[in-house]
Amino acid sequence: MEPNIRNIAVLTSGGDAPGMNACIRAVVRTGIYHGKNMFGVMQGYQGLINNHIIPMNARSVSNILHLGGTILKTARCLEFKEDEGMEKAFKNLKEKEIDGLIVIGGDGTFTGAQRFGKKYGVNVMGIPGTIDNDLYGSDFTLGYDTAVNTIIEAIDKIRDTADSHDRLFFIEVMGRDSGCIALRTAVASGAEAVLLPEKETSLKDLIIKLKEGVNTKKSSSIVIVSEGNKYGGAWDIAKSVKRKFNHYDTKVTILGHLQRGGSPSGFDRILGSRLGFAAVNEMLKGATMQMVGLRGNEIKLTSLDVALHMHSYKLEDDLLEMTKVLSI
Amino acid sequence: MEPNIRNIAVLTSGGDAPGMNACIRAVVRTGIYHGKNMFGVMQGYQGLINNHIIPMNARSVSNILHLGGTILKTARCLEFKEDEGMEKAFKNLKEKEIDGLIVIGGDGTFTGAQRFGKKYGVNVMGIPGTIDNDLYGSDFTLGYDTAVNTIIEAIDKIRDTADSHDRLFFIEVMGRDSGCIALRTAVASGAEAVLLPEKETSLKDLIIKLKEGVNTKKSSSIVIVSEGNKYGGAWDIAKSVKRKFNHYDTKVTILGHLQRGGSPSGFDRILGSRLGFAAVNEMLKGATMQMVGLRGNEIKLTSLDVALHMHSYKLEDDLLEMTKVLSI
Amino acid sequence: MEPNIRNIAVLTSGGDAPGMNACIRAVVRTGIYHGKNMFGVMQGYQGLINNHIIPMNARSVSNILHLGGTILKTARCLEFKEDEGMEKAFKNLKEKEIDGLIVIGGDGTFTGAQRFGKKYGVNVMGIPGTIDNDLYGSDFTLGYDTAVNTIIEAIDKIRDTADSHDRLFFIEVMGRDSGCIALRTAVASGAEAVLLPEKETSLKDLIIKLKEGVNTKKSSSIVIVSEGNKYGGAWDIAKSVKRKFNHYDTKVTILGHLQRGGSPSGFDRILGSRLGFAAVNEMLKGATMQMVGLRGNEIKLTSLDVALHMHSYKLEDDLLEMTKVLSI
Amino acid sequence: MEPNIRNIAVLTSGGDAPGMNACIRAVVRTGIYHGKNMFGVMQGYQGLINNHIIPMNARSVSNILHLGGTILKTARCLEFKEDEGMEKAFKNLKEKEIDGLIVIGGDGTFTGAQRFGKKYGVNVMGIPGTIDNDLYGSDFTLGYDTAVNTIIEAIDKIRDTADSHDRLFFIEVMGRDSGCIALRTAVASGAEAVLLPEKETSLKDLIIKLKEGVNTKKSSSIVIVSEGNKYGGAWDIAKSVKRKFNHYDTKVTILGHLQRGGSPSGFDRILGSRLGFAAVNEMLKGATMQMVGLRGNEIKLTSLDVALHMHSYKLEDDLLEMTKVLSI
User: Fold this and answer.
1) In order along chain D (328 residues), what is the average pLDDT of each group of 10 residues?
2) Residues C132-161: what's their mean pLDDT?
3) What is the pTM for the complete model shown?
4) pLDDT tens across D245-256, in order?
5) What is the active site of this protein (chains A, B, C, D) (predicted)?
């Protein structure tokens, strides 16, 4: 039987990701299309607790599809991990008769949503929004594709100056636990090597690889370093390499927070729109405690339980092999 | 048993697409990595016939990963459809002892490759390279993702001026037989309506939709028109609409050939690299008369026969529905 | 003696141009900084007549610096050319006690402002905002620099596909009366030729030039056509050329309205900010009936009278010469 | 009397800058147009010493106009500061009968050129190519405009995430001795404050400014820090501020070498083309020991002596004032 949901709230939580606004727009307009009252919660779970919940109409989400960041803002919220915080949040929802909650974020966000849904029986749907692409149940998370484009555009610029000066660059990209961004951007930028959190690369092998580049007359070399790499950040690695290999002038760039921003790519706008559209439709058909995700070219549901307990991204074997073969 | 292939040639044929250079680089370097001699054929099949075939080494494909177009150039070639043309092409390959041929292009390209491979027993592999995303056996063709990004960046710019002037814009995008580009860019740009070659949309419905936008106080409206639309191009449709609906100042933009160019997106660079890498590896393991494609997150083979005879892209139901629901 | 101005309104009129929002922000915040009440007029002079005038504070112009278009919208307004329209406009300003009016636009905008200022004694300042760069008294008009960047990015993309196919492209850019955009983008994109409204170029000479390119083995050729060219638009010229020169496959692209949009360049953001800042400061010091402009690296005033009656942009001799010399 | 120059060499030296390739193209093609033999020197002065000097024709500089970096590469060269190094360089030029030398770079480059020209009577022309915009005699140096655009695009992205999280960002940009880049990008990005090498800003004032932003409900704040600032780099300043002002979550980004790269803006392509064109033309008319520069909209000569001894860029008063007024 379909639930009788009348009022739905949406929030973004955790790190912001490009495409979140496209997704918020889709959630709000799909709800309105079905005659529901829609609400936006500011600053993620903090706004639930602080009762910072605002009514939204179709015009509230005009002209946001193409903007980076999130108009609902986001925050990490310790208070929501406590019973007292959850209680306040529930009280606020109840007061406004909100019976559906859609959360956009990563696994921290889903953990909160799952506990909250279980405890209070609120209908809850999760949408994978994080640039890290590290959630089980969706081939891609919202924001990841844009982040890859942002990073390779930065590396293309750095390659210009690296080539002009015969330099070796160490470039640190995001991905504390997952090497997905590092591996993909290494392939996409033609990097000479990549250091990943999941994989031990000996400094010795790295130096051998760089020396091969010298022998084959490469005019510059670029090494992508995932921030979670075992040898420390890009600065530490650069220092260690420099001690033993000093053919090039060595430079370091930490790309930092610009990786999170920017107008979402077509891929992320479409993904955000599809996921937001599906999350509302599925909720109205009775789904709860589920994550919507993209698998192949189809939108599929995965229970939050499963999404949270399965290991997510596995480094693709062909991509790993390619980082060696294609940079000869 | 693995074939004893020593010399491999690669060509691009049909319309050019961003990511072709990334793919050429992957083909050449993967071959060299395995100790093969690699050749580039200029201007597609025309170069095979004219014996415009040049040896390539690892440095021949340096610094091309990020460039649009194709360094091997491309052309449509009627002569290769004739027996005489094919005969010349084979003679040239034989002379150079080239026993493997990798072609990057669309269905016209594959038709030629298949006939050629069958007739002369040359090992042939196909790589789907076309912005149209209309080939069976691969969720995405090379260049499509970049084209979508290029188009939505152009539409974002047009939206600026449309909003500032309360205008109605008709924007024509590529896709003579397939509405894939039009449908996806319509969702990604928040277009108010889209006209597709696969689907009859009555002008009456379109005008109703536009009037709704006026009622809900939209300050501008954008209609995406696929070049293959039944009502003719964007100019004809704009004229027909204007006769019956004249609320806004009406403008037309034909995006044209800029849709084909530009530095490939991360997605297309990775896709081109994976497909080129796989095409060589599979050929060396014995595959022939196959297309390499991406399905889900994996590289899969499809025989050229099947790829050419199956209907390819089907408009996604949720995307079609979304063009109505999300632009309220 | 300094005038006692308390309430200032700002409007944008004519074609929109990137950087107008940066300029509106500067006007509003500079006024507020000096303790004035600030107002925005919607849709240019039409909003003056329709009394669509809204109070603005510092937050009204938050997060607009980087956006294309104009948040105040713009329109062409015939009614303001009539005495009756002006009378209504003045009545509305008087009612709100607005004693200063700042207009951002081109020469049509300034003509209206000048008549209005003279007739009613309202303090009026003009800011040159148009992508055409055709106003006397400012080396650059707001939006022109961004438009050049937008156009060359489009041409770079077209060059990719032109090179890949050995094609001849005719690309039509904006500039009905002034060849400034065409000449500059021709130099900046390395076009083989350019057709300008100010200058007769014989088709014969154009064809000679294109043939030279064939002789020197150019793989593609690009001709920039200003929309105001004497031979008609790019389509007509392409047709005429094709009749007598058919070495390449010939294509035409009309860039159209995407030339007006997009996030303003650094140059236009700074220019818009400086001009808006200066317009308010100068008005408060007593200036009226003046245009603020950039000359060299300094902000200078020119009376609207002079700005409107002097011939503006003159094609630079060295740039004209360079279109011949540098494309050999 | 015009000198009888037959062979001209061009080199790039110091840090690379976008637009150098456009300039090299203009130098080479202008020389060829006048019937001269043209040469490119690799790696700046080092290539003069090492006799790494290659003949160039019109096709050598095809398709480089739009590329960042420099195809001639660049390096800092200590050896050229010694008499012995200069002697070798001259010997190599003499051997090839090169009687004109055009150098593209900053003041270090010009110092070398001037000494070399004086000592050996070689005809020498300088072109200002550095992103720092710190040379007397030209309103703009080559690469500066592109660098500003690159930086503000990065800051726009960071603003997305700063706004979403209510954060305070310190962003370090290039400019060890000159605050030109920092000041301009601060205005162009709407930064809340800027720290410049030329100007003492007390931490106390900075904190007052940031607190005002909190009071006026700014959702994020961005402080631009020039790398040459007296308080140390962005990290040090962030730490000092954090100790006394902890309203926002504080983050730091060092933009680093991506500021040097990227496809040149229209402005820099035109500037590079004009300067290269003028340098050759003026040399052929007899000029030597001069720098070509842009003043207003005209190309002017300044003797290298004067260019090297005059103080260059002075922070514009209106821009300084605007950083306070416009970010309220």
Assistant:
1) 88 97 98 98 98 97 96 94 97 97 96 96 97 93 98 96 92 92 97 91 88 86 89 89 88 94 97 98 97 94 94 86 92
2) 96
3) 0.96
4) 888 889 999 999
5) 132 (proton acceptor)
What is the per-residue pLDDT across D140-164, written as a single tens digit (0 to 9) for each? 999 999 999 999 999 999 999 999 9
Name the token pair of D122.
Answer: 């070689």
User: Per the residue annotation, which of A16, A83, A99, A132 is the catalytic one?
Assistant: A132
Nearest to B322 among A139, A273, A326 (CB): A273
Rounded CA separation D108/D77 (Å): 10
- Using a CB–CB cut-off of 8 Å, the residues of B that contact C are 12, 15-16, 18, 67-70, 73-75, 150, 154, 156-166, 169, 219, 251-254, 256-258, 260-262
Is B267 in Cβ contact with A148 (below 8 Å)? yes
Q: Can you give the three-state secondary structure of chain A, one letter per residue?
A: CCCCCCEEEEEECCCCCCCHHHHHHHHHHHHHHCCCEEEEECCCHHHHHCCCEEEECHHHHCCCCCCCCCCCCCCCCCHHHCHHHHHHHHHHHHHCCCCEEEEEECHHHHHHHHHHHHHHCCEEEEEEECCCCCCCCCCCCECHHHHHHHHHHHHHHHHHHHHHHCEEEEEEECCCCCCHHHHHHHHHHCCCEEECCCCCCCHHHHHHHHHHHHHCCCCCEEEEEECCCCCCCHHHHHHHHHHHCCCCEEEEEECHHHHHCCCCCHHHHHHHHHHHHHHHHHHHCCCCCEEEEEECCEEEEEEHHHHHHCCCCCCCHHHHHHHHHCCC
Among the partner residues D32, D189, D299, nearest to C318 by beta-carbon distance: D299
Given a contact as 3+ CB pairs under 8 Å, which chains touch C? Answer: B, D
Residue B132 annotated to the active site: yes
Distance, in angstroms, between B105 CA and closest chain C CA?
13
Q: Are strands C298-303 and C167-173 parallel, antiparallel or unpaired?
A: unpaired
Contact between D18 and D261 (Cβ < 8 Å): yes
Q: CA–CA distance from A237 to each of A163, A194, A198 (Å)?
A: 21, 12, 16
Q: Which amino acid is at D97?
A: E
The three-state secondary structure class of D319 is helix
- Known binding-site residue numbers of D: 15, 25-29, 76-77, 106-109, 130-132, 159, 167, 174-176, 190-192, 218-220, 227, 251, 257-260
Chain D residues with CB-CB distance to C18 below 8 A = none
Q: Rounded to an integer, what distance in angstroms lies between the CA atom of residue A35 and that of residue B242? A: 32
- Cβ of A157 within 8 Å of Cβ of D75? The answer is no
Residue A205 in marked binding region: no
Which residues on chain C are in Cβ contact (under 8 Å) with B251? 256-257
Nearest by CB to A325, which of B29, B149, B217?
B29
* 3-state SS assignment for residue D10: strand
Residue with tokens 């309104």, as numbered in its chain: C9
**Closest chain B C-alpha to C254 CA, distance in angstroms:** 7
Q: CA-CA distance, D110 to C277, in Å (whole number)?
A: 37
ipTM, 2 dp? 0.95
Which domains can be identified in chain C, with CATH numbers?
7-143+264-309 (3.40.50.450), 145-260 (3.40.50.460)
Choosing from D16, D132, D134, D268, the catalytic residue is D132
- Which residues of D are annotated as part of the binding site for ADP? 25-29, 159, 190-192, 218-220
Cβ neighbours around B35 below 10 Å, total = 8
Q: Specify the amino acid at residue D77.
A: C
Tell me whether residue A129 is annotated as binding. no
From D245, D301, D273, select the one nearest D27 (Cα to Cα). Answer: D273
Put simply, the answer to whether D158 touches A254 (Cβ < 8 Å) is: no
Question: Are C253 and B257 inside 8 Å of each other by CB?
Answer: yes
* Cβ contacts from B onto C, under 8 A: 109
